[in-house]
Design goal:
Number of helices: 11
Strand order of the largest sheet: 7-8-6-12-11-10
Largest sheet: 6 strands, mixed
Number of strands: 12
Order of helices and strands: EHHEHHEEHEHHHEHEEEHEHEE
Length: 285
């Protein structure tokens, strides 16, 4: 059995020290039939099966979810104890998340240990984040859009069996005689490739995970953002843009082109690294 995890919500909950409660909310959504109401006995069964903690800890988790407004235990007129599971939009509002990532299916067995749950949440975030996920992205940008510091990012990726990172290099048209000046004045990690200058780019990441349809998350994100969705993952203006080769050449003809444009090369390096052509700022005639 799998749980549909929304990585952006899980990352926000971790930053607010509510990731244990977020784990219970995702578990309650798993047994919800769409009515938003779950029998307490059914929720208790899945908690025992997939979290397996003490009754005291369960009561504490339920109380925390109730305080946050994510779950509401009630007793019906017939004496039946049920739990109202709040929807995706309400939970996103409580966490201050205006852009919900695409849902990712994670095996429910990974909810048992909190460390494994956090790794699974990072996998879900990386798999479901917005934008072209095959493009290079720096640790700094990932920290800005997720709130997870670079050290934790590396720890999660080392523990993950789903995330694969790939190094990337940029090949320029600048002669290798400029190498020392680029290193000294532009502060780039540059090196020589044949007669040209190249430098390292941020890694790109691929995640082997099943994704849920993006329709619901996109509709709710649009409502949360007031009907206007940002094109970039963090809503920031991009100074460095990555495109396919032909698209990057067209971008360079624009008056409002970014400071740096890179076009993907089809052939990777011998080391397996992705190769990008640096289009510069004066490449278009």
């Amino acid at each position: 059995m799998c749980v549909k995890v929304f990585g952006s919500l899980a990352a926000a909950a971790k930053n607010q020290r509510s990731d244990s409660a977020m784990r219970l909310w995702h578990l309650a959504r798993m047994v919800d039939d769409g009515s938003g109401v779950v029998a307490w006995s059914a929720l208790q069964d899945v908690i025992d099966r997939y979290i397996g903690t003490s009754q005291r800890h369960i009561r504490r988790l339920v109380a925390e979810c109730e305080r946050l407004g994510w779950l509401e235990p009630i007793q019906r007129h017939n004496g039946e104890h049920v739990v109202i599971v709040r929807g995706l939009e309400r939970v996103a509002e409580s966490l201050g998340v205006s852009k919900i990532s695409q849902g990712c299916y994670i095996p429910a067995t990974e909810l048992r240990r909190l460390k494994a749950w956090r790794v699974a949440c990072w996998d879900a975030f990386m798999a479901g984040r917005s934008g072209r996920r095959s493009r290079p992205i720096s640790r700094r940008v990932l920290e800005r859009i997720s709130g997870v510091d670079p050290r934790s990012q590396r720890n999660y990726e080392r523990s993950s069996a789903r995330i694969t990172s790939r190094r990337n290099i940029a090949i320029t048209r600048r002669p290798s005689t400029h190498l020392d000046g680029i290193i000294e004045f532009e502060k780039r990690p540059a090196f020589r490739v044949v007669d040209d200058v190249a430098w390292m780019l941020p890694n790109s990441y691929s995640v082997s995970a099943d994704l849920a349809p993006r329709g619901m998350a996109r509709r709710i994100s649009k409502r949360l953002s007031g009907g206007l969705l940002q094109l970039s993952g963090d809503g920031q203006h991009r100074k460095r843009i990555f495109y396919e080769r032909r698209h990057s050449e067209r971008i360079m003809r624009r008056a409002d082109r970014p400071a740096e444009v890179y076009g993907r090369c089809r052939q990777p390096a011998r080391s397996g690294a992705g190769v990008w052509q640096y289009m510069g700022v004066n490449a278009a005639i």
